[in-house]
Amino acid sequence: MPRIVVDVMPKPEILDPQGKAIVGALPRLGFTSFSAVRQGKRFELTVDGEVTDAILAQAKEAAETLLSNPVIEDVVNVEVVEA
Amino acid sequence: MTELPLIGEAVAVAASPRLAGAKIGVVTFPGTLDDRDAARAVRLAGGTPVPLWHADTALGDVDAVIIPGGFSYGDYLRAGAIARFAPLMSKVIDAANSDAKLPVLGICNGFQILTESHLLPGSMIKNDHLKFMCRDQVLRVENSNTDWTLDYAEGQEITVPLKNQDGQYIADEKTLDALEAEGRVVFRYVGFNPNGSRRDIAGISNAAGNVVGLMPHPEHAVELGFGPESLDGIGGSDTDGLGFFTSVLNKIVGANK
């Protein structure tokens, strides 16, 4: 089954409290090379059958209306992944 | 929600029989916690609470709606994001935007649902300290002209409980400036900002003042002996939250100051 992957990230200008906590934890485990972390979300939408342009357009609309909140998040990627 | 036994003494309002005719709908979603408390607050203020279910397709004849706190849909996806698309919410959104300007109050998760519904601008993200916080919180009433704050004085400080994890109010600078300029910052945190909210904002309204959302919980401060005052004496009274409910009830029956 093909899947449509949607990646959502907090907007660059929005402080990401979770990312901040993670970047604070990394050095405690010896991972000292990373100066910033931002945490986003990945959605995998499974499609029964072929991904048509219409279905991809639906996924993009769903990404903008339900999967992300445009006030705080950006949809950074919508792509088809064959299983 | 018909018979709610009164634990404390209902002192707050010598309720006018007229108020009992005002019906306030209280919406329950899967995961809502504070619907009972909100309904109780309406009753203590003298009004008649009407339970509404998220899957209802009609609002009935309610005169106002409260979207209470809790964790609708487990806060999955984003707090309030799934509740926003419940069948009843489209009716609430239409009624709030209609000429009749249905009064709508969103408390905590209800506030999050109202921002996800675009009835109110901005959004809530995780508290800046990343912890769930529960405390008695002092708020300043910055606008006493909304449907839900008419019975307060401008600048009045009230103390009500606050309990949330995703309580950090954010919006872009332009939106924040517009909210300030239009008097739509309705409540501000006083003394301590519990979650990193921009400009200490605890609650806002829409342009018409019929839709108000805030993170703290006025419905938990409506009864003597069961409000913030008895805990640590940080000020206010046990019943500081009652004004929300008397405000809208008096507005509905046309009895505000």
How are the secondary structure elements laid out?
The complex is a heterodimer of chains A (83) and B (257).
Chain A: E1 3-10, H1 17-25, E2 41-46, H2 53-67, E3 73-81
Antiparallel strand pairs in A: 1-2, 1-3
Chain B: E1 23-28, H1 35-44, E2 48-53, E3 64-67, H2 87-97, E4 104-107, H3 109-116, E5 123-125, E6 133-141, E7 157-164, E8 168-170, H4 173-181, E9 185-189, E10 201-205, E11 211-214, H5 229-232, H6 242-253
Parallel strand pairs in B: 1-2, 1-3, 3-4, 4-11
Antiparallel strand pairs in B: 5-8, 6-7, 6-9, 9-10, 10-11
Description:
- The complex is a heterodimer of chains A (83) and B (257).
- Chain A has 83 residues and is α+β, with helices and mostly antiparallel strands.
- Chain A is 29% helix and 28% strand.
- Chain A has a single domain (3-81), classed as Mth169, Chain: A (2-Layer Sandwich), CATH 3.30.1280.10.
- A three-stranded antiparallel sheet of chain A has the order 2-1-3, covered by helices on one side.
- Chain B has helices at 35-44, 87-97, 109-116, 173-181, 229-232, 242-253, and strands at residues 23-28, 48-53, 64-67, 104-107, 123-125, 133-141, 157-164, 168-170, 185-189, 201-205, 211-214.
- In chain B, strand 1 (23-28), helix 1 (35-44) and strand 2 (48-53) form a beta-alpha-beta unit.
- The longest helix of chain B has 12 residues, at 242-253.
Quick take:
By secondary structure, chain A is α+β, with helices and mostly antiparallel strands.
